Amino acid sequence: MPENVVVVESPAKAKTINKYLGGTYTVLASFGHVRDLSPKDGSVLPEQDFAMAWEIDPKAEKHVKEIAAACRKATHLFLATDPDREGEAISWHMQQVLGERGALKGVDVKRVVFNEITQGAIVDAFQHPRDLDESLVEAYLARRALDYLVGFTLSPVLWRKLPGSRSAGRVQSVALRLICERETEIESFTATEYWSVGADFRKESGAGLTAQLTYLDGRKLDKMALRSEAQAQAAVATIQAATFAVDSVERKKSRRNPPPPFTTSTLQQEAARKLHFSAKRTMQVAQRLYEGVAINGETVGLITYMRTDGVQMANEAIEACRKLIGGTFGARYLPDTPRIYKTKVKNAQEAHEAIRPTDVFRTPESVAGHLNDEQRKLYTLVWQRTLASQMEAAVLDQVAVDIAAADRSAVLRATGSVVAFDGFYTLYREGRDDPDRAAETSEDDSERILPDVREGEPLRTERVTPEQHFTQPPPRYSEASLVKRLEELGIGRPSTYATILSVLQDRDYVRLDSRRFIPEDRGRLVTAFLTSFFTRYVEYDFTAEMENRLDEVSGGRIDWKRVLRDFWEAFSPAIDATKNLRTTEVLNALDQLLGPHFFRADATGADPRACPSCADGRLNLKLGRYGAFIGCSNYPDCRFTRRLVVAGNGDDPAEPAADAGPRVLGTDPATGLEVSLRKGPYGHYVQLGEAVTEEVKDKDKPKSKSKAKAKTKPKRASLARNMAPADMDLARALALLDLPREIGRHPESGEPIMAGLGRFGPYLQHAGSYVSLKGEDDVLTIGLNRAVALIADAPAKAPAKTVGNHPKDGKPITLRTGRFGPYVKHGALMATLPKGVEADTLTLEKAVEVLAAKAARGGGKGGAKGGRKAPAPRKIAKRGAAESG
């Protein structure tokens, strides 16, 4: 048995490393984190010095047992998880779990880190093992506890005070605020008209150039100087009346230096801009390239570790780049000295290398046949950026020509540039943050060549063109620009951005449209609530400062529990203060912040808050059981509601809210009660009347004056899956409430055929048999002929077969066939036949055994009470105790 056990996160990584180590090593995968905080309230206890309750993932139990068994026969354990804070945490958890299981007695435990999965890097790492980095582990613990405390204390506040909301998070909520505030900027933006004037000039030789007006009547024009068409036409007249000559020619050279190699953040941004990858997809593909792909029968790691803030590269990698540049592009493209980059990002993490190819001589063309399309594209991007970072700068020849009127009444400027030396441009150029504005090109994108002109040379005016413009609102965030902004603010970590952006979309707080984030109204409500009542905790500088403190922990400069105590002492009272918040306070705050968004004035000047259903009602935000909606202030006299949407955005503002507050469909002529459409946790339904609470005298206490209260539930009926809530009217609602209905009697059996709605959808019932309705058949309108045909076409159901009489009570046990296969029934107790028990050979003894097993589990009326096993008490292990054990 090998004496050395190595633990990594993934099987792909384990397979690759196993080839590089000798036969005395066993490499096993933990498949990521093996445990996490228990997903229940109370897993972090501030009152117990932030004790944490860890819970092993059931999916990880199998892998933990395998690793523990191997360790019991080994002398050395090498924890070789990823070289970052998260990797350190996985190794710490692994050591703790194995220690608690007694699998590390006599085992020397060491930590091994490598930045790339190559034989040289791995062999070197195993020659220089170290102990676990306590500071990195503590930084992980502090971050995990903070995220847990925010999530498990703030989210319930949202659920209580803002129904329909799903969660809040320390960084997630700040990212959502950025998106919502940008949308508010766009909505409040007022476009301003302005004009520009251009003119085409021609030399006597015939060469032409185009220039833009920069001075008019001795006054320098800024972008907004010409605010109307009249002003623009006046400028046109001035130009047309003048004669022009070249006033000055300015020539200069400018250099464009290459960007540094990729970090996690810049890789996500560039992959979004150029490849249209989401941040999550980028990290998934990069993970595969890092762990290795099969090339000529060998698994090879193609890039270095992809979670990093560093832009520096190893000297060996730099020298390899320079050698390749000189050999492929020539000496002109090779700088005299290597380019050295330093991290400028605020709050940079541990000093890892930049993301680069493990072997720059492994060109994209040479490995393309071993990669899928996404892997090939991302590897090409990494390879090009890495190589370009060590290439010579690009050189541009820039020319600016001022063309002046003889009387100096107007001056126009023509600019142009030519790439004098392409340098790194020959291989790589960065993508644009705002591809929607590609028309606004710069000299980096294309060559604009001006003809040779000399000062004093006369020019003929050919055409003068005024052009109208309007100022544009700021663009919505793309994944690339949002990641860039988060990084600039020092919020979160690049390795977490992919998860944050996914959560925002999964929670239906934002959506992606044309690769731009648009906040959903639910997201805007959450942001408005948090900024109103938890202002400090969604402020950008607060979140960034918290990241600073966590970095101080990872550097060993501050105690991690001090960070938690300082946070909790301020955060806990803020949470407690919301317990006394009244619904009116919440609504007033939301209405003040979001009123301008949901109630916008139109061109008619009509009051956007005027209720369209009653004379004097005013529309306001309201909170219902399942979320917010817009309703009338005269409720319940006026029951007008509408969905939480902006009037005029394509949705009919007068359309009632089928997915918010109750929508009254009309009055039942038989009972005089209102019929309404509502939405519950299981979908839409119609309801007759309202719940009525009545006082009922307690029969057991006839002398008592107190009376019990009983609530009478109104009649309800769910909508079938093929019924659109927007199409529901009074007639269909009454028909639903009348289900099940008799369609008629079967012409052969004389038995009634009923139509109804059940757990599994609409059905027909005849003589004890059921037939599901599917496709175009409507449970409310299906006729007798169609129903008879469907019953005739239904597969014959096997009749119940008597297995025998139960030995205890003598009642029959029958064998039947249901939706989930054969089952046995005795009285009210039913039990599905387990695997391996065939219906054709079922004996009475086996049937009794199957029924008894079901009863012991608490199934049916005959089941034993208290069949559920009581949950085991949760173990809360203080970290100090765990470490000493």
Give a concise summary.
This protein is of the alpha+beta class and 885 residues long. It contains 22 helices and 36 strands. Helices cover 32% and strands 23% of the residues.
Explain the overall architecture.
The protein has 885 residues and is of the alpha+beta class. It folds into six domains: 4-132, Rossmann fold; 142-189 and 475-583, Topoisomerase I, domain 2 (Orthogonal Bundle), CATH 1.10.460.10; 193-257 and 395-470, Distorted Sandwich (Topoisomerase I, domain 3); 264-392, Topoisomerase I, domain 4; 739-793, no CATH class; 799-885, no CATH class. The chain is 32% helix and 23% strand. It is built from 22 helices and 36 strands. A hairpin with a 2-residue loop joins strand 31 (761-766) and strand 32.
What overall form do the CA principal axes indicate?
globular
Report the helical percentage.
25-40%
CATH architecture identity of the largest domain: Orthogonal Bundle
Structural class: alpha+beta
Which percent band covers the strand fraction? 15-25%
Strands, total number? 36
CATH 4th-level superfamily of the largest domain: Topoisomerase I, domain 2
SS field, number of helical segments = 22
Question: Which CATH first-tier class of the largest domain would you pick?
Answer: Mainly Alpha
Radius of gyration: 36 Å
**Mean pLDDT score, rounded?**
84
Q: Describe the strand arrangement of the main beta sheet, using strand numbers.
A: 9-10-16-15-12-17
The termini sit apart by 27 Å
Poorly predicted parts: 345-350, 434-446, 648-660, 861-885
Instruction: State the major sheet.
Output: 6 strands, antiparallel, barrel
CATH topology of the largest domain: Topoisomerase I, domain 2
